[in-house]
Amino acid sequence: MHIATVNPANGETVKTYHPMGEDEIERRLQLAEATFRTYRTTTFDERAHLLHRAAELLDEDRRAIGRVITTEMGKPVKQARAEAAKCAKAMHWYADHAAELLADEEPDASDVKDSGASRVLVRYRPLGPVLAVMPWNFPLWQVVRFAAPALMAGNVGLLKHASNVPQTALYLEDLFHRAGFTEGCFQTLLIGSAAVDEILRDERVKAATLTGSEPAGRAVASTAGEMVKKTVLELGGSDPYVVMPSADLDRAAEVAVTARTQNTGQSCIAAKRFIVHTEVYDAFAERFTAGMKALRVGDPMDEETDVGPLSSEQGRNDLEELVADAVRAGATVLCGGERPDGPGWFYPPTVLAGIDREMRIHREEAFGPVATLYRAADLDEAVLIANDTSFGLSSNVWTRDEAEADRFVRDLEAGSVYVNGMTASHPAFPFGGVKRSGYGRELSGHGIREFCNITTVWHGA
Which residues form the Aldehyde dehydrogenase domain (predicted)? Predict the structure, then answer.
């Protein structure tokens, strides 16, 4: 398996790595198991001290690691620094809140008495080594939103990161070690995808979490199911962005541009399908298209760049094929749609109108700065279009009518509904999807409890 840093802005290979062999993988599995035996007995205060220190170090490193991220996967460097800052914030949040989130719970006294007990507790205990299979698009954040709660719960982590971000993966292992965590608390495994199955089958690995593609999720879930191991999956998304007549149209169009092109459009929770009521469709389309045209595409190390290159040549090819298929089937290109000349895997912000259900881009996730516009006759049709997807990660609704908002919250098939705002993850709120966007939740109290043994402790009278 090719594990390397290849700069998406010019296609040049910066650094290559040899995958770890069987002996090194075995050594690390042994270390994870041994470390867990002692780490699980540490107190919340001890874990919080270490995690706070990791957050402080990450904050100090954000400029340097931001440049590494941009070199490896191409996001504008200002967004890479912001990602590092967000990770530090999440670490601090879990360090501050884990003890409360995982505190012993006491059932209602009448239920305790009815059970014949003198006392009953529900206790959250760690599971053990957890395998995390993580993607390249948010190479720090995707890992930290697993690692921070897992470590605070008393688990230890094994990271299989995407093969195009090895320097970021190794940085994360070093970060936790510098913060004072025992060596085996968090380890990076430089391995290819083919090695995941055998590691997941190992009895020392107690659970797995994956953020990535639907095929990768199916593979991990299949093996974990066979081995009867807990998994959390966050897969693709084709999030709807609904605009109704009562919306603040200028604000909705402005936010829509960011919602579609954040991280160069390579985000599972990026808005992708823009469903606009016919009364305001033309006005919104004009504003939105103008905003997309105005974005600056270029060198991701330039502080003024809005949209960088896609992470890989294959990623750009896949996106081009979706656009070409839509155009052949009758879609109209309002802006963009053609790759620029020159080195690097750039693709312009693109808006397509006239989408129908037979086009691939209607059914598949467009992972890049390509937006699709839909015209809805009324609220009912907007809901139908929004739900006409196999995905269900998040959703966005713009309306100042409370009854409309309530209807969308009730009927949209998604893990989140953002009203008059853009989808964003926050450590205090649960994050995850339904349908083929996966199952389980990350972040918040729900996320930290996913990899806990929820134990009933019963004391006789």
Answer: 3-457
Whether 77 and 223 share a structural domain: yes
Rounded Cα distance between 13 and 75, Å, is: 17
**pLDDT score recorded for residue 438:** 98
pLDDT tens string 202-237: 999 999 999 999 999 999 999 999 999 999 999 999
DSSP assignment of 22-34 = HHHHHHHHHHHHH
Q: Find out whether 360 and 223 touch, Cβ atoms under 8 Å.
A: no
> Cα–Cα distance between 38 and 90 in angstroms, integer?
25
Q: Is the CB of residue 223 less than 8 Å from the CB of residue 398?
A: no
Is 268 one of the catalytic residues?
Answer: yes
Provide the domain count of the chain: 2
Q: Is residue 410 part of a domain?
A: yes
Residue 9's closest CA among 346, 241, 406?
A: 346
* Tokens describing residue 317: 């090819």
| Same domain as 67, residue 172 | yes
In this predicted structure, the answer to whether residue 243 has a pLDDT above a threshold of 60 is yes
Q: Which residue has the tokens 């340097």?
A: 64
Q: Which residue shows structure tokens 């990161």?
A: 161
Residues 6 or more apart whose Cβ sits within 8 Å of residue 83: 66, 69, 75, 138, 140, 141
Model's pTM, two decimal places? 0.97
CB distance 437 to 393 below 8 Å: yes
Sign of CA dihedral 400, 401, 406, 409: negative
Structural domain for 51, as ranges = 3-236+435-460
Residue 227 corresponds to which tokens in the numbers above?
């081995």
Q: Give the CATH number, domain containing residue 380.
A: 3.40.309.10
Identify whether residues 148 and 263 lie together within a single domain: no
Instruction: Give domain status of residue 425, yes or no.
Output: no
Q: Is residue 427 part of a domain?
A: no
Same domain, 227 and 143: yes
Active-site residue identified among 33, 83, 173, 268: 268
33, 83, 173, 234: the active-site residue: 234
